[in-house]
């Protein structure tokens, strides 16, 4: 059985400031995570010549992948974070204060709520379909470096979790979720590389 390794990008400058969306670089801590991840991947996939590293098109995932050498890297727009539309770059506090109806609507139905001029979780789930097809087709291990909302959806697919849970699944920073698909079903391991 071949593993799929799922991880968020290392902490970004916007994570530190509590801002959603955007396309900032990683923080110093995020950079440290990239190095730890590279170490882990190089050990874990040492003899796996055909393994590949998939990122989104956003800086924070590309920078997190950059210390990993020896494997091909592929950028997928479909792995980009949920598009927060008019709320891109805001903090949750700002959304609550300036757009209370939007804040409440999202709280009521986070799965279906679509940011104005942006996406809903259902939209994200739909755009991930080609990624999932390609992941299923791969025979070699894949490391997916993406974002919280996207990884919630991918994880739910492999772990067979119901749709309604997806927006609430915990996908912590600086942690690798390893999925093994074998004949007896799916097995999962988690590696927390740092806080
Ligand atoms: O920036 C977006 C977050 O990663 C998604 O978090 O859907 O819980 O607001 P949320």
TrEMBL record:
Name of the protein this chain belongs to: 6-phosphofructo-2-kinase/fructose-2, 6-bisphosphatase-like
Source organism per UniProt: Juglans regia (English walnut)
Portion of the parent chain present: 563 to 757 of 757
């Amino acid at each position: 059985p071949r593993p799929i390794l799922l991880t968020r990008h290392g902490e970004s400058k916007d994570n530190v400031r509590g801002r959603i969306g955007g396309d900032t670089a990683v923080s110093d801590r995020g950079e440290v995570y990239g190095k730890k991840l590279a170490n882990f991947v190089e050990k874990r996939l040492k003899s796996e010549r055909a393994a590949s590293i998939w990122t989104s098109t956003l800086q924070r995932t590309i920078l997190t992948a950059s210390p990993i050498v020896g494997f091909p890297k592929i950028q997928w727009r479909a792995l980009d974070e949920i598009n927060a539309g008019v709320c891109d770059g805001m903090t949750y506090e700002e959304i609550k204060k300036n757009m209370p109806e939007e804040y409440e609507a999202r709280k009521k139905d986070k799965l279906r709520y679509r940011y104005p001029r942006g996406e809903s979780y259902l939209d994200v789930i739909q755009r991930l379909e080609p990624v999932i097809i390609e992941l299923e087709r791969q025979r070699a291990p894949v490391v997916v470096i993406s974002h919280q909302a996207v990884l919630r959806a991918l994880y739910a697919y492999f772990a067979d979790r119901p749709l309604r849970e997806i927006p609430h699944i915990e996908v912590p920073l600086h942690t690798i979720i390893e999925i093994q698909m074998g004949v007896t079903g799916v097995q999962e391991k988690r590696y927390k590389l740092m806080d």
